Each structure stands twice: as C-alpha cells, then as structure tokens.
Amino acid sequence: MEPTMEKAEPPRSSTPSWFAADPSKAYYEKLSLVWAPISMLVLLVGVLGTPLYKYCDRNSYLLITVLACLPGIFIPVFFPCPADCGRPYAQRFWVKATVWIAIFGFYGNYFWTHYFYELLGAKYLFDSYRFNDVPLVTFTATFFYFTFYFNFVNLILRRVARFSATFPSFARNLIWWANIAALAYGTAVFEAVSIQHFPLYTYTETEAFMVVGSVVYGLYFVIGFPMFFSLDEGVAPRTSVRGAATNALAATAIVTLLLDLWRLMLGSIYEVGRSARIPVPFVYQGRECPEAPEGVAEVGSCSEQLTSCAEQASSWLYRKIMFSANLLQEKSTEVTRQYEHL
C-alpha cells in the first residue's frame, strides 16, 4: 500500500518569511499570487464588468475560464523551481495543491451550489453548459479563484502561527481560529461584492446576501483554509498526492455537514425558521415537481410518479426475465431432444 506521507527533503529555510520553508511550496505560493489574480481580473474586469458579457455564449465563457486556468499548470511544468527539477511530479507541491483544489472545488460546485440556490436564493441566468444544474463555467473559474484564496491565506496563517508560537495553548488556538474565521468571512464578502454588479447572477436581497450569505459561504473556508495550509507545512514529512486527496475529501465532508446543519437549524437566510420546508438541495425526491407542459395531464406528486415508474420498470423487467427463461427452457429442451435422436 502506498504510504500516506513521504520523507521530507532538504533544503528548508529556517528564516522567518511570509512564504513556506519548503521551497517547492514557496514557489507555488509566489506563482499563485501572480497568475491567479490576473485570471480573476480578466474574468471580473475584462468580461463580467464590461458589456462584453452580452456577447458571450456558453462556449465563450467556458473557453475564457479554461484558458485562465492553464497558466497554473503549464508554468510549473515548463518552468519548475530548482527544488522541483529532477523530482517526480507526485512530490512537487503544485501537483498536490492542484489535486486538493480540484477536489474541493468540484465538490463545492456539484453539491454546495445547491445550498446557494435554496438557502441564499442565488440564480445563474447566463447561457452555459450545466452539470447537475450548475453552470460548467463555475467549475473552471473556481480553480483560479480558490488557488488565489488558499495560497494567499497561507501567508497570513503562517505569520499568525509564528507570532503566537510562544503563547499559551489556549491563547494560541483562540488567535488561530479567530483569524481563520475573519479570513473566511472576508473572503466570502470579497467575492460577493466583486460579482454583485454582474446582472446574470442574481439573489433575493442584497444586504442579507452580503452579510448573512457570506457566513454561509464562509463555512467553505473555515474548514478549507487550515486543511490546505497543513499540506507540506513545517518540518513534518511531506504529504503525498494521496494524502492531499484524502485531506481535501475530509474537508468536503465537514463542510457538507456544516451546510446541512445550517439548512436544518436555520434554513433560508431570508426566512429563518423555514428550514423544515427546505429539502436536501441535491436530492431530487425532495423537490417539488416542475409544472407539467401545457396539454399534458399531471400524474400526481413526484413520489407518486417515481413509484409509478418503478412499478412499470419492475413489471417490464419481470416480463423480460420470464420471456428469456421460457426461451432458454425451450432451447434446452430442443437440444436435449436432438441428443436423444443421436
């Protein structure tokens, strides 16, 4: 079985710095603070913040965001840092970080976007390919957004950890988590403010979305920031790619639990207490049926329709099985008779 961790590799700087002591991690943090913000500006200012978005179709949005992701992969491949030269790709920090962010971002879009729909009243109105009713372009855009967020926050958390290293354990933990909470909320507010003028992303009420909705979005980062920070940090053995993937999956499980607890206990940010009427967002059986098209009679509730379909499918499958069994029996009898005549 592949070990979860790999042995640390020198050299690691002992000089206090904003960047990681591990040169491979420090290289990717520096790189991410350059290419990721540029990609964000291209999307926010160059497209969404100008009339250009009116001329973009689903292919244009997807192409822009895919191209904006490529520097984060091609630059470290073709221009690696000295510490990564000759090192297997699986041991390079940028690979582990990419795996982590890809998993966390995919899970967030595929599942957690539906909490935005239900709890925050958010809607995407622009033309886009959709996957699980989520615009495909958000999956690609999330990659460079999260790359910037997580690597930038690494710098701050590292300084906080070094500043409070000599403090008593209680004070150190209090400072640590207070900073994480502030950074998580600030990141959520930043994104909400940066996209508020894009008319094809709507929500029910601006103030509630900014103030309370940012708390919901901040749950992503309260868990994600410290989990990502732990990769190849300090003098501990280096994290493997499998370890990075496991770390990301653990983070997604915790965030999902927190979001669902919000749904159960508080419900919509606009109608606190409506939680009992909000189903699990990504479970179809809990949703109301869409209205039947004109001229098509409604059959009943979703559960009744599903039950009816299941019964019909079971009946059809039973008939097919019995037909096949009878056919097989006839063929078997025919073959037996042929052998009897020999």
UniProtKB/TrEMBL annotation:
Keyword Endoplasmic reticulum among record annotations: no
Q: Where are the transmembrane segments?
A: 33-53, 59-81, 93-112, 134-153, 174-196, 208-231, 243-265
Q: Which UniProt keywords apply?
A: Membrane, Transmembrane, Transmembrane helix
Naturally occurring in which organism (per UniProt): Chondrus crispus
Lineage: superkingdom:
Eukaryota
MF terms (GO), sorted A to Z: cycloeucalenol cycloisomerase activity
Protein name (database record): Cycloeucalenol cycloisomerase
